């Protein structure tokens, strides 16, 4: 039995929403409202996010937790919709059990198919210095400034700030943990895939999205010139319609 805090809404074909690394399940509020008519929508907080605890010294697997949650809920097949780090978890889940994943919709996903650009490396260094110094508020400010595009409304910026600040608190309190990644095998991902990326996102994520769309056999690339790294929080309703259209395609 998984200990992931989760919500299940609606009925119909299952859609599982996996949040970004700066967020928790609240990032999908608008999308859920659009998807529930006709879908059974499952969303969760991964360990150390939202209302799911992260125990000090824990040894676990985010992808393994997601698979366990699907088992617990009796979800045999689903579409996976995932943002950023959640996209990396989705790729692990789909590689481990491709027969259970009908479709992937990946919004600015993380994947090991491109090299980090210098702006991302500089962000990592600055974030690490701030966290190490204990200035979690400044580290949170940095994340909001880096990952939200110019059209993000104030309420989305406030929500991302709250979510990311909570993530830092979980991480600092837990200390060193071991999150075991499942192997990602792109050759096993023969299901339809929609890869979305924002024109204002970091070059690493733009390169990653384009490369995934190139190498996956049934992939479509959607580039959003107005978006940064979190389109579902920047133009929530437009992103919700995009996700819904991808699922019905």
Question: Tags for this entry?
Answer:
single chain; 249 residues; alpha/beta; two-stranded parallel ribbon; 9 helices; 17% strand; globular
Structural class: alpha/beta
The stretches of 5 or more residues where confidence is low (pLDDT under 50) are none
Rough shape?
globular
Work out the helix count. Answer: 9
Gyration radius, rounded: 17 Å
Number of strands: 9
What series of H and E elements makes up the topology? Answer: EEHEEHEHEHHHEEHEHH
Strand order of the largest sheet: 1-3-2-5-6-8-9
Estimate the helix proportion, in percent.
40-55%
Mean pLDDT: 97
From the N-terminal CA to the C-terminal CA, the straight-line distance is 34 Å
Largest sheet: 7 strands, mixed
The proportion of residues in beta strands is 15-25%
What does this 3D model show about the protein?
There is one protein chain. The chain is of the alpha/beta class and 249 residues long. 44% of the residues lie in helices and 17% in strands. It has 9 helices and 9 strands. The strands form 2 sheets. The protein has a 7-stranded mixed β-sheet with strand order 1-3-2-5-6-8-9, with helices on both faces. α3 (85-96) links the parallel β5 (78-83) and β6 (101-107). The longest helix is centred in the middle third of the chain and has 21 residues, at 154-174. It is globular and about 45 Å long. The mean pLDDT is 97.
Summarize the structure.
By secondary structure, the protein is of the alpha/beta class. The chain has helices at 29-35, 62-73, 85-96, 118-133, 136-147, 154-174, 203-215, 231-234, 236-248; strands at 6-9, 14-18, 40-44, 59-60, 78-83, 101-107, 178-179, 193-198, 219-224.
